[in-house]
């Protein structure tokens, strides 16, 4: 079985200039865990996952203290209004993941599954040789396959 047999073709995407507010609204509206980010020609630039929109604990340099960090800046957990202001003005390209694995149509499905279970990427882009986004593969696609085979 090949990647082409499992992927969702022509996935919905975001442009790099979309704001994080727009991205968050679409994620919630569509109930997606991420969106691929593409340029005007449809070439994959990166991926924005829900996790990228949330503060995460990080170690403060030279200490054992953990604090929340969002978009590379320390965030006071009491300042939710500031997070919203950042969402309104920050473009997707500022926080999207660019170093992400990708697969091709002809790749074996097993290769894609291995990437999904070994990496922190939950949505695996499928691209052509020029980097144009053709589809997306998720962990759920494999669950559906396993259930269909039973």
* Structural shape: globular
Strand content: 15-25%
Gap between N and C termini, in Å? Answer: 16 Å
Report the radius of gyration as a whole number of Å. 17 Å
Mean pLDDT, nearest integer? 85
What's the CATH architecture name?
Roll
- CATH top level class name: Alpha Beta
Strand arrangement in the largest pleated sheet = 1-8-7
Unreliable residue runs: none
Q: How are the elements arranged and paired?
A:
Layout lengths: L2 H4 L1 E2 L10 H11 L3 E5 L5 E6 L6 E4 L6 E5 L2 E3 L4 H10 L19 H10 L4 E5 L5 E6 H11 L1
Antiparallel strand pairs: 1-8, 2-3, 4-5, 5-6, 7-8
Helix pairs in contact: 2-3
Q: Can you walk me through this structure?
A:
There is one protein chain. The protein is an alpha+beta fold. The protein has a single domain, classed as CBS-domain (Roll), CATH 3.10.580. Helix content is 31%, strand content 24%. The protein contains 5 helices and 8 strands. The strands form 3 sheets. It has a 3-stranded antiparallel beta sheet. Strands 4-5-6 form a 3-stranded antiparallel beta sheet, with no helix packed on it. Strand 4 and strand 5 form a beta hairpin. Helix 2 crosses helix 3. It is globular, with a radius of gyration of 17 Å. The mean pLDDT is 85.
